[in-house]
Description:
Number of strands: 13
Mean pLDDT: 96
Shape: globular
Largest sheet: 7 strands, antiparallel
Number of helices: 1
Distance between the termini: 33 Å
Order of helices and strands: EEEEEHEEEEEEEE
Amino acid sequence: GSQVSDAAAPLSPPSTYQVLYPIGFLSGLTPSTLQYYLIPGRRELYWGIWWKPSDPFQSDASGVNKIAFLWTETVSNNATDLLYFDLSPNPWRIRGMNDLIAGAGPTAGQRLEPNVDTTEVALGEWHRIEIYAKYSTGTAANGVLKWWVDGRLNGWYRNLKMARDSGFRYLQIAPTYGGNTGDLKLENDYYWFDHIRVSRAP
């Protein structure tokens, strides 16, 4: 990743964070990672990101072009329990992924498609992605995940189940290309990030 100038960045120009997927880049890898550790015990949070994909953009054959990850404390103990968000084609849209495998809720291991509205993502333009997540309580599958794209609520799931641990542990901007399909980038593609905000519950 690198710092580049974009006077059209929507919130804090001109500096932006650029991620390059060069020609020949292999599926399943990420060019760069930014990681932010949360104070332990965070069980509810808001995360807002200004983000832009290049135009054109070559999708992985799996349709998975990851953007950001929300990890739980259980992952730090070598068990899978996380959420991530990706750009998927036909139409271009933002999806969630419930990788809360250790939690073992009803949608564990499933793609979380937009179930309220679908904002079609225009390539080459800035978009605001907002995420709200709240931990499940006890043994109940009542964890909440909501996400908005450009101010429109796209997804709202209320049946997530996290492992019974101390809460969310860290956030990642880790724009992984695909999921180990063997695809290679045939063009130079980019993601850009302008401004990121993280808030805890009051």
